[in-house]
Design goal:
Helix content is about 10%, strand content about 30%. The protein is built from five helices and 26 strands. A four-stranded antiparallel β-sheet has the order 3-2-1-26, with no helix packed on it. Strands 4-5-6-7 form a four-stranded antiparallel β-sheet, with no helix packed on it. Strands 8-9-10-11 form a four-stranded antiparallel β-sheet, with no helix packed on it.
Length: about 450
């Protein structure tokens, strides 16, 4: 009898995971055959009024799942521009310059690797002409995934620190077979950060995650899990590569926040850390477990994405902002068994903004499922995978709830002022996924076709 009960419990857990991962996206309309823009008939009069008065008007760059082209929309949901390259993510710069990716192992021939890796990192002008490409890291591939960063530029628009259109690029990549017997008995898919200059030459900078295992704070339970069963798609599955940027903490003497240092975060291990660009050592970190010391203030972060320091000149500058996905993540005794680690679980996502010195939460957005919730009315906030967040210059926050394809702007008081739901063609359950979205200043878009007031006149 006891054996039968254990079997029933095991089957129940497996079915619950399948239902959570597969059926919820279906219910939310993942399979569609057209792009749907905002239906303002669903908005109440009060939200419509907020939309008119309080949004940060500009264009929104949407990077869908790996092999769909990025699109640029205006505040009414009209498609202003579609790129010819891919975006994992795509990022826009002044003059409409776009940096993204091209040719993935999923779409152009399986290379035996789990997760999408790209052969080229590309610069594309507004007229869709490619003016720069890099593919010469190893085996004539860039192996880029999840992120890159234009050195010397903020992570997104800052009214104080100007965004460049040229310079070195930090690229987050992955090596397929790395063997480090002190970490695992088997090969690791190891995340790497390297740097390339504007002439497509490698600068010599490389950071390999497996070299810094002992700096990551894993407990014995996590170490056992990683040793016997490291997860696929990168044993850490890093998804962020961003410079810290100019900030008040460094000006106050906190060397770990040197502007050229690099922030990254691990979806699998629940880690967020800052890499010293000069020494390679991890100078600052939180996680992977959040039950001791100052980290208890934050609560357990699970599967984070898009961690960054809010750039100078924006409300909340110097605070760390991230999308805390929830769902399942974190290394336990069973490691990455069945695709990814599952030590911690939380049934909702949240956005957290916190002081990186004291770890006090400054601002948080979440919607926890309650007895009256409705899938159709977005009464819950949950994206196990992908997703992003951006602080806007008027103090609002742009949130990408990735697995729903939902992008929305909220005020400091957490009122939803604007939202857009991305849908695309095809039969894949992930077709409506959006990896990241950025609100773009009107002056960066050639011709400013929707006629929005320039941010430089409003915020600089």
């Amino acid at each position: 009898m006891e054996k039968n009960n254990s079997l029933r419990l095991f089957i129940f857990v497996i079915l619950f995971i399948i239902l959570s991962v597969v059926l919820i996206p279906i219910y939310n309309g993942a399979i569609q055959n057209k792009i749907i823009i905002n239906d303002y008939n669903q908005l109440t009069d009060s939200i419509t009024q907020n939309f008119i008065n309080n949004t940060c008007d500009g264009y929104t760059l949407i990077s869908p799942r790996e092999d769909y082209h990025p699109i640029l929309i205006d505040m009414q949901g009209r498609i202003i521009h579609e790129s010819s390259i891919y975006g994992f993510p795509a990022k826009m710069f002044p003059t409409g310059l776009l940096i993204g990716s091209l040719i993935s192992n999923e779409k152009f021939g399986n290379l035996g690797r789990k997760g999408t890796l790209y052969k080229f990192v590309i610069k594309e002008e507004w007229n869709n002409s490619i003016i720069w490409e890099f593919n010469n890291w190893t085996n004539e591939w860039a192996f880029q995934h999840h992120d890159f960063h234009l050195v010397g530029s903020p992570v997104y628009y800052s009214p104080v620190n100007k965004t460049k259109i040229d310079g070195n690029i930090l690229i987050l990549a992955r090596l397929d077979k790395t063997y480090n017997k002190s970490i695992s008995w088997c090969y690791l898919q190891d995340d790497v950060i390297y740097e390339v200059d504007s002439n497509c030459s490698l600068t010599g900078y490389q950071w390999h995650s497996n070299d810094h295992f002992d700096e990551m704070g894993f407990d014995i339970i996590s170490k056992i899990g990683i040793y016997f069963c490291p997860a696929g798609q990168g044993w850490l599955h890093l998804n962020t590569c961003a410079e810290v940027g100019n900030n008040k903490w460094y000006q106050q003497g906190y060397e770990q926040f040197s502007p050229e240092n690099i922030i990254s975060c691990s979806r699998h291990a629940n880690l967020i850390f800052i890499i010293n660009k000069t020494t390679g050592k991890i100078d600052w970190k939180i996680g992977p477990n959040y039950y001791t010391g100052l980290e208890k203030k934050l609560g357990q972060i699970i599967g984070p994405h898009c961690a960054h320091i809010i750039p100078e000149g924006l409300p909340g500058e110097g605070n760390m902002l991230l999308f805390d996905n929830g769902g399942l993540a974190g290394y336990g005794l069973f490691g990455g068994f069945i695709n990814f680690p599952k030590r911690y679980y939380r049934p909702y996502s949240r956005i957290i903004e916190f002081n990186p010195i004291t770890l006090d939460i400054v601002w948080e957005y979440k919607k926890i499922i309650n007895q009256n919730f409705s899938f159709r009315n977005n009464d819950y906030f949950l994206s196990w995978f992908v997703s992003s967040v951006q602080r806007l210059p008027n103090g609002n926050t742009l949130i990408t709830e990735g697995t729903k394809g939902r992008i929305f702007e909220v005020s400091k008081d957490k009122d939803i002022l604007w939202q857009y739901e991305y849908k695309n063609t095809g039969i894949s359950l992930r077709n409506n996924w959006v990896y990241r979205a950025y609100r773009i200043p009107p002056e960066w878009v050639p011709g400013n076709p929707s006629g929005y007031t320039l941010w430089e006149t409003l915020y600089e």
